[in-house]
Every structure is written in structure tokens, then in C-alpha cells.
Amino acid sequence: MYAAARAYTNIALIKYWGKKDEQLILPMNSSLSLTLDAFYTETSVEPLQGLHEDEVMMDGVLLSGASVAKINRFMNLVREKSGRHMFARIVTRNHVPVASGFASSASGFATLSAAAARAYGMDCSGAALSRLARRGSGSASRSIYGGFVKWMKGTDDASSYAVPVDPAKWPICLVSVAVNKQPKKISSREGMRRTVKTSSFYPVWIKEAERDLARIEPAIRKHDLDMVGKIAEANALKMHAAMLAADPPFTYWEEGTMTVMRCAVHLREQGIPCYFTMDAGPNVKLLCSEADVGRILEDLSEFFPSESLTVARPGPGVDYLKNP
Ligand code: DP6
């Protein structure tokens, strides 16, 4: 059966960094994110008789070799779980603002999970989709839902999935600053592995991440932007500190990353709530109030061209699309 879905990207405020099981993608710590409306992926999956492998078309290009390997592995899992063995035609399109600095793996695997689960007649409940998406990419488990979402680390495949925490119906915004769009030299998978294995700060990171998560949830429920921002910013810094303490040490930051961080601190000195967070890359996201977006863009435009600045708002969860 043909099925198509759409899912949005998310940004973690309490980061997932480190796996205890690389095969099942079980994380060392629980995490929490905000789903965003700025970047989404639409994917259709159609199992077809007569195909000898999955046929994957991404943004108009037929994928082959290494670029399709991750999707093939994921589709093999779908076939194993569903007991249906047909290969599929997969058509996927990323809707990305120009030079946005947003990553696609979260929205990509969330939407592929939803479309594949329906196409192969599998359980399409939220928890089942989140568990399936997790096997493609950890952060994708959270893009099943809109607003603020928590991925509970769980203890095994059955208990590690995301749940919605708050619909984020308050006037918050996320300004993304694309510092450098080049592909990163150390993938998040490799970066996590090295940090878990070698960083003397890693045990502290785990403890702090769980503590930050316990503190951010009540702040979200109270719509306390300052508290949410403060906890998220500190959490990002602690994750990056754990990377600096790895062997060999590494960082994703670049000069532009520091420039944005300084802008945020400067804006706060002027009484404007504005907090930064960075993932496994140099780009920075600023959490702020809708009312302050204009002023923040004005400050950033001193250092960055307008096409590298994107404003995102809370986005919805995964949704099915009608047949064309
Ligand atoms: C820093 O979900 O991309 O963005 O599970 O190996 O595919 P894999 O990793 P991925 O890692 C995301 C790491 C992060 C933090 C986060 O999104 O929680």
C-alpha cells in the first residue's frame, strides 16, 4: 500500500549525547526537544512487486551506494518487523529554508517511519512510530510529536521512546544562525562514541543531563522562558565540555559560533531574554520571545548575512498525507 507522511525537525534543549546500545540506538540519557515549523520532510513509501532493492529518490536525485545504506538498513528492519518482504519505492523531499543550518535526519527518519509503518501494515501509534524512528536516528524519535517532547531513555527497545510534554502554545521563537553549512568532519555518531569512551567528563554529563531534564519540565509547564533558556544553554555547554575532555579532544565550534554566543549574552545584558544552544555542528539556535525577534535579527545582521538567519516557531507532530 502507498503511504505518505510529513514530519518536522526538532532542536534538543536537553541533549542526547551517547549510546548504551549502538544497534538498538538506546541512549545513555533522556533528552527533551522542541519541534520546529521551519524545516520538514515529506516522504512516500510504496512497496512494489518486481523491485530487487529499495529505490530511493531524494530531492529529485536517485540515491545510490553509501548515501542509501542507512535507509536500506532501516527498511530491512521494517521488513523484518512487518513480515512483508517487498522492496519499496521511496520518494522524499526536504523543505529547507536556504542556508538554514538545520539538520534533516530527525525529520527524515520520523517521516520515513510513519510512511513505512503504514505502507507495511505495522502499528502506527505514537509510541510505536517513535520507537521505529529511533532506530533510524535517535533524535528522530522526538519528531513524532509537536511542541516540547521528551525521549525517555528506557532500559530496552520497548521502553525507549518519546512522549509529548507541552504543546508549546506560547509565543516562543527560535532564531537559527547558520555559521557554516559544510558537512561536519566528525559525525554525531562518531563524536558520541568518542565522548562516551574517552571523556573523563562523561559521567558528570550524564548526571547533569538528568538533573537538567528534571528542572526544565516544570519551567516549561510554567512557560518560564528565562528558566527554560538558562537550563538549555547550560546543558548545551556541558555537552560541548564533555567533547573537549575527550581523547583526542574535539569541538564543533567555530569563530562564528562564539560570535553568536556573545550576541546572546549582550542581548541579555540589555534585558532581552535570549539563550543559545548548539548541536553537533557550528550553527547556533537562539531561544527567545516572539516579541524580541526583530531586535535579535538586527543585532545578528551586524555579523551575518540575512540569508543565514531563519526564524522558527513551535511545529506540529508527524502527519499523514493524502494519496496523490
Ligand atoms: C547533538 O540523533 O543525529 O543533535 O542517533 O547517531 O543518528 P544518531 O544521532 P543523532 O544525534 C543528535 C545529537 C544532538 C543532540 C540531540 O538532538 O539530542
TrEMBL record:
GO terms for cellular component: cytosol. It holds the Pfam family MVD-like_N. This is diphosphomevalonate decarboxylase. Residues 7-162 form the Diphosphomevalonate decarboxylase-like N-terminal domain. InterPro entries: GHMP_kinase_C_sf (IPR036554), Mev_decarb (IPR005935), Mev_diP_decarb (IPR029765), MVD-like_N (IPR053859), Mvd1_C (IPR041431), Ribosomal_Su5_D2-typ_SF (IPR020568), Ribsml_uS5_D2-typ_fold_subgr (IPR014721). It comes from Sporolactobacillus nakayamae. The keyword Lipid biosynthesis applies. One of its GO terms (biological process) is isopentenyl diphosphate biosynthetic process, mevalonate pathway.
